[in-house]
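<instruction>
Derive structure tokens from the sequence
<entry> Chain with its tokenised backbone below:
===
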Amino acid sequence: MSMPGMFQVWPYLLGHYRWNFRSSQMNESDLKARASYENKLSDWMAIEAIVRQKDKETTAANIAKLSGAGM
């Protein structure tokens, strides 16, 4: 089996497509998966921004403590 053929079988083996799906059903499944992925990615990016902000605040507070302790 050629490489392009191998890649075409993975959506079936992983349960993304059912064996009896028509082309329109595959497109619908792809659109749903893409929307789900984009929503999850957006959620994670928002969480990452919050974590980075908290890290900056913690670092600034620790630097302030160290600067004040040296006086």
